Structures are given as C-alpha cells and as structure tokens.
Amino acid sequence: NDRSGSGNGSSERQYLASACASGSVHIYQLSRVQTTDSNALSETLSLVASSEASDVDGGSGSRLALSLDWDRSILNAVPERMSEQKIVSSYSDGSISIHSFNSSLETPSLAE
Q1: String of b and e for 77-86 (b: at least 16 CB within 10 Å)?
Q2: How far is the C-alpha of 49 from the C-alpha of 83, rounded, in Å?
Q3: Are the C-beta atoms of residues 22 and 53 closer than 8 Å to each other?
Q4: 14: region left, alpha or beta (phi > 0 left; psi from -120 to 50 alpha)
C-alpha cells in the first residue's frame, strides 16, 4: 500500500493504492471531516478507481497482484503534472504493469 497527495494546503487530496489478491489495483481517496460538536477528526477511505486483473495474454485474470509503488518523481513535478501519476505493480506470474492514474477528472481513472 502507498499514499500519494496531489495539490496543496487544505484542498490536498490524498490517495491510497492497494494491490489486491484478485489481481486488481484499487485507488482510494482519504477524506477528513472535522465534526463541529466534538472537534474530532473523522477519516474515511472511498474507492475512486480500480484496474481489473488481466493475464499478460489478455485473458481473464488469474494472477495475484503482489506489490505496487507510486512514481516518486511526481513529488518534484509541476502542479499541472501532479494529476497524472504512474503506478507500477508486480504479479505472481512474474510480470509487471504500469498504470496511469488521473485524479484531475470528476471521476478519477486508472488505466493499465
């Protein structure tokens, strides 16, 4: 699992990527809400995008997603580029995939 922020200040959006046993990669957005009556901070994760598992030959997915990592060069990127991030994932059959995560859309997307 890994987390990547985009934007800055109080409008910053943070994401968590998860490599799943089903072979899929899921992206969640972390939301923080401060309650007015108790001044407590509530955090929730909402699924915003996923990439379904597929075999290297294009068949239905039977491989496990073992790990993933965000492209760290995004940390030094200009703000316009921060909405398009790369994620690399490794699989139980020895293959790897590069996913493109676009958070600038109304509905964020993840494509392999």
Answers
A1: eeeeebbebe
A2: 14
A3: yes
A4: beta
